[in-house]
Design brief:
By secondary structure, this protein is α+β, with helices and mostly antiparallel strands. Among the domains are: 208 residues, Distorted Sandwich (Beta-galactosidase, Chain A, domain 5), CATH 2.70.98.10; 164 residues, TIM Barrel (Alpha-Beta Barrel), CATH 3.20.20. The chain has 12 helices and 35 strands. The longest helix is centred in the middle third of the chain and has 14 residues. The chain is globular and about 75 Å long. 48% of the residues are buried.
Length: 633
């Protein structure tokens, strides 16, 4: 990745004081001067306050690295940085890293270090660095988030729908004992500001576990804790991040977390290619129009590969049960599957393969695993059942990169926000309640919450894009919803979801024949580039109600909207188009008869001309969607 400096970091030493002469208040503002971060140090410790547009985002709140130990401020300095860099893949082809930073040099419990705080126009990051640490030191990177009593928050809980809205001022004692509040947390403030609390660059912070969040009933604040399982002489914490914006959607496209992450550690990234993938897991048991029944066998996989080759789909993902068990250095393959024949067939068709590895089926040996997958000609690995183990997952990322493998983490993984900059082979992860996952019901409201909460931490493997919704709901798959007719969506909504949810690997879960039967609708997915976006915007967003995402690739724009079960109309302002140009737009729409419960597969396609400033009235059925492919003439 190339990094181009626009303005070299200006180092301004504000003061070199001893502890008694340092000002009690230390301030730094964002480059646009709309955000102000204020620190104060007193007998009770170091506190911060965050304001935006002269309104309080986070009231006076504690921040520490060694709890309950006074901090001595030695000196402070301010850096102003404005650079640009180009990610290997992402929501933007070029990212501006533009911030003002205050470095507070400290002494705490006889140890020297510093607190780094970077203030962006749309976010803030905090990180401690501490020297001369020993194993006896009880480190805890602790921060409070002092919010107003009428603010509400949402949070993720692994493979379940996000929780919220929860009103801070009305929490019961039981609710205050929240113990499984996972990152990110999203706050809707009474003054209409939106916040998110999460972390970045955990990968670089050796020894630290994932940041935990909780609610302190006594102080009435949300609190975060980052503790190391082991420490070395010099400690560098992850970044604690606060994102802010006017809408929930603003948080999803923020580049603060990737800017705070360490630069790319892979020297040659030419082999890292984002894209779309076919997937077999949700198709097992599907009967094609010609009577063929899909399963875990050679012929089924050849059908997937044929379709991928025909439609220009880059990958085919072979999920669990391609092997029966693993022992040290050996896989016992499923008898019905000739894996060598499938590999040769994919190579002949120019389709790359990604292969699942599930540790609950036995241990092959992690050090040998990645080179073995590479020797098979695999382009990636989907890694299952590793759990929230930071060091284990860190090793998996670096080891897969050494074997030139993309890695897709399955099953409530470590979020590792920002790691796609450091190791862009970390292509996606199932940090969500995935489509039909655990055979649970999946609603439009849940999807919209996931797209506005879980997606803030990075790319999601959510498996959107089912076309045979009626068949799935009728139980005609081995792995359909546990309760029949509980999978609520429309085919146009399914198409929109593949765009709305950002990922470096968009996994489409239905059968080739289901897509071929609606080839004109599948065109949107087929033509949509993945991962290599030049620009991304969230045009409309309201938690649990609706979302509109627009992404640009060169001169083409792809726009997708999803609506909750009430249905309705969204205004989509085309002000993002270039002035003076006429564009051809293809609309992929619900019909007046479409309904996520009674008629999910009805759709219509039409074309029109549009220009900058036009406002599209996107009519969506209950649980429906709306898509536009906009091309310049």
């Amino acid at each position: 990745m190339k990094q181009v400096s626009l303005t070299f970091s200006m180092l301004l030493f504000i003061a070199f004081f001893n502890a008694c002469s340092v000002k009690s208040n230390i301030n730094v503002s964002s480059p646009d001067k709309k955000v102000e971060l204020t620190f104060e140090n007193n007998e009770e410790g170091l506190t911060y306050q965050l304001n935006r547009n002269n309104e309080v985002l986070v009231g006076v709140s504690s921040i520490s690295i060694l709890p309950n130990i006074p901090v001595k401020i030695l000196n402070t300095e301010i850096n102003s940085v404005d650079t640009k860099w180009n990610p290997v893949w992402g929501q933007f082809s070029e990212i501006r890293d533009f911030y003002n930073e205050i470095v507070i040099h400290i002494e705490v419990d006889g140890k020297t270090g510093k607190l780094l705080s970077r203030v962006y126009n749309d976010g803030v990051g905090f990180r401690f660095e501490l020297d001369d640490v020993t194993a006896e030191d009880q480190l805890d990177f602790y921060a409070e988030y002092n919010l107003a009593s009428n603010d509400v928050f949402y949070y993720t809980v692994g493979e379940h729908p996000p929780v919220g809205p929860v009103a801070i001022g009305s929490l019961s004692d039981e609710q205050a004992k929240l113990s499984k509040m996972l990152l990110p947390v999203v706050v809707e403030k009474s003054n209409k500001n939106h916040l998110s609390f999460l972390e970045s660059d955990l990968y670089s912070s050796k020894g630290f576990s994932t940041m935990t969040m909780n609610f302190n009933k006594k102080s009435g604040t949300l609190v975060s804790s980052s503790k190391p399982k082991y420490i070395s002489e010099k400690v560098v914490t992850p970044w604690k991040v606060i994102l802010f914006g006017d809408s929930a959607g603003d948080l999803v496209t923020s580049t603060v977390t990737v800017n705070l992450a360490a630069p790319c550690e892979i020297e040659n990234t030419d082999w890292i290619k984002p894209g779309k993938t076919m997937w077999d897991w949700r198709v097992h048991g599907y009967t094609a129009p010609d009577g063929f029944v899909y399963g875990i066998n050679t012929e089924s996989y050849k059908r997937f590969i044929d379709f991928a080759d025909k439609k220009g789909i880059e990958y085919f993902l072979i999920d669990a049960s391609w092997y029966k068990r693993a022992t040290k250095g050996h896989f016992e393959l499923t008898p019905e599957l000739d894996l060598e024949a499938v590999i040769a067939y994919a190579e002949d068709k120019d389709v790359e393969l990604i292969l699942y590895y599930d540790r609950k089926f036995g241990e092959y040996g992690d050090k040998e695993l990645f080179p073995y997958f590479q020797s098979l000609g695999m382009h990636g690995i989907k890694y299952g059942f590793m759990g929230n183990n930071v060091q284990f997952s860190r090793d998996a990322i670096s080891q897969s990169a050494a074997s030139e493998l993309l890695i897709d983490f399955h099953d409530s993984p470590v979020p590792f926000t920002g790691v796609r900059r450091t190791f862009p082979n970390a292509i996606t992860r199932e940090y969500c309640h995935a489509q039909q996952d655990s055979r649970k019901a999946f609603t439009p409201e849940t999807f919209i919450k996931l797209a506005l909460v879980n997606a803030i931490q990075g790319p999601l493997d959510m498996n959107n894009g089912n076309f045979d919704i009626t068949g799935i709901n009728a139980g005609k798959r081995q792995k359909g919803p546990k309760k029949l007719n509980s999978y609520l969506s429309t085919v146009v909504s399914e198409v929109a979801r593949t765009l709305v949810v950002f990922s470096g690997l968009v996994c489409i879960p239905d059968a080739p024949e289901a897509y071929e039967a609606k080839a004109d609708l599948f065109e949107f997915i087929q033509k949509m580039p993945v991962g290599k976006w030049d620009e991304s915007r969230i045009l409309n967003s309201k938690m649990g109600e609706y979302i509109t995402t627009a992404r640009r690739s060169k001169n083409d724009w792809f726009v997708g909207s999803v609506m909750n079960q009430k249905g309705g109309v969204l205004d989509i302002d085309l002000n993002f188009l270039e002035e003076g140009k006429i564009y051809e737009v293809t609309f992929y729409e619900d019909t007046p008869e479409t309904d996520c419960k009674t008629n999910p597969e009805a759709y219509q396609i039409r074309k029109a001309k549009v220009k900058k400033g036009d406002v599209i009235k996107a009519n969506m059925a209950p649980g429906g969607g709306h898509c536009m492919w906009i091309k310049s003439e």
